[in-house]
Amino acid sequence: MHGSCNVMIAVEAFCEILHQSGHLITAYFVYRGEYFISAQRCFDLQMIPNFFMNVGNFLNLCIGIDRLFAFLYPLL
């Protein structure tokens, strides 16, 4: 767990946990029968999950590039 790729995978997994928490917010409102909320309230509630979704996607790209270089240049 000391390699750079392993650290990025761990951070990406943590970001995905926070991203998935946005689905709990949606489920809460649906089960309460509150199908429509204001755009401002939706933005406020989904800002953190969406931020971590973007960070996770960027880390996923970085992991892919790291693994590509590890495959193409194994001895560097």
Provide a quick synopsis of the model.
It holds the Pfam family 7TM_GPCR_Srsx. The protein is mainly alpha-helical. The chain is built from two helices and no strands.
User: What is the average per-residue confidence, as pLDDT, rounded to a whole number?
Assistant: 92
Q: What structural class do you assign from the helix and strand content?
A: mainly alpha
Helix content percent band:
over 70%
Order of helices and strands: HH
- Overall number of strands: 0
Radius of gyration: 17 Å
Whole-number tally of structural domains? 1
Largest beta-sheet details: none
Task: Give the strand content.
Answer: under 5%
Termini distance? 20 Å
InterPro entries: 7TM_GPCR_Srsx
Protein name: G_PROTEIN_RECEP_F1_2 domain-containing protein
Question: What can you see in these coordinates?
Answer:
By secondary structure, this protein is mainly α. The protein has one domain. Helices cover 82% and strands 0% of the residues. The chain is built from two helices and no strands. It has helices spanning 4-31, 39-72. The longest helix has 34 residues, at 39-72. The protein is elongated and about 60 Å long. The two termini are 20 Å apart. The model has no long low-confidence stretch (mean pLDDT 92). This is G_PROTEIN_RECEP_F1_2 domain-containing protein. It comes from Gongylonema pulchrum.
